Amino acid sequence: MTTHLHIDWTSCDGRGLCTELLPGVLDRDDWGYPLARGKSGRERTDVPLRDADREAAHEAVRLCPKLALSLWDGEKPEPGRRRPGQ
Amino acid sequence: MDEAMWAFGRVSGFVSLALFTASVLLGILNRSGRPLLVLPRFSISLLHRNIALLATVFLGLHVGSLLLDSFAKLNPVDIVVPFLGSFQPFWQGLGTAALDLVLAVVVTGLLRHRIGQRSFKAVHWLSYGIWPVAMAHALGNGTDVSRGWFLLLAAASAVAVAAALLWRLSPSFLETSHARQGNLP
Known about the structure:
The complex is a heterodimer. Chain A is globular. The relative contact order of chain A is 0.29. Chain A has one domain (3-78): Alpha-Beta Plaits (2-Layer Sandwich). Chain A contains 2 helices and 5 strands, in the order βαβββαβ. Helices cover 17% and strands 23% of the residues of chain A. Chain B is an all-alpha fold. Chain B has 9 helices and no strands. The longest helix of chain B is centred in the N-terminal third of the chain and has 31 residues, at 2-32. The radius of gyration of chain B is 18 Å and the shape is elongated. The interface between A and B is medium-sized, with 20 and 19 residues.
């Protein structure tokens, strides 16, 4: 079961904390927004994580100044049931 | 013992105000999205939070010690309801108002993930109002205001916060403002 980092693009303001905490997973575009490295399509919004990155991803979810990040395991939950920090 | 409480009450007030000043400056820096020297963005975010919490602890010590002190003539109700104090009720009331608002900012800050960004932000904006109120309380109510070091500290803090505020309002405030205004790197 892979953990995914979901980026809510309507909340994201590209402040760059997540790209600092997950440098191997997220790059930053010219406007500051996170860009999943080597990913395309849906995986840019729901970024699959390696186990080693899970802890850093938790920190990123906790510290995101716009509450734009969340984590989910396995099946993608209904958008309404996804809560930041979980 | 009374002397000790009085001295501690004054000192903890200064420490709290100085820490709140640092927290406001770090909060504005945090909002810009810029790292500072060797500090990455997430460290500035954590430092902002932790210094604010430490300032709140000193605020608690400030109020707690003056409650126990007989010079200050502080009643428990003065902690919650402003402008009822027996000594300089207006200036003391500003302190009460700042205390109550600080508690609101701290509680909503700690519950940010539960209450959502909008409510958090609405309350967090109060910080810009709390800082001048706290400073006015220190200048109006403080018994050490005539001391040179205190005036120096107050003036330096005010200049720093005013400069940070001007920077906050400037078009180049955001780290990404250059790119977002249409200029590609």
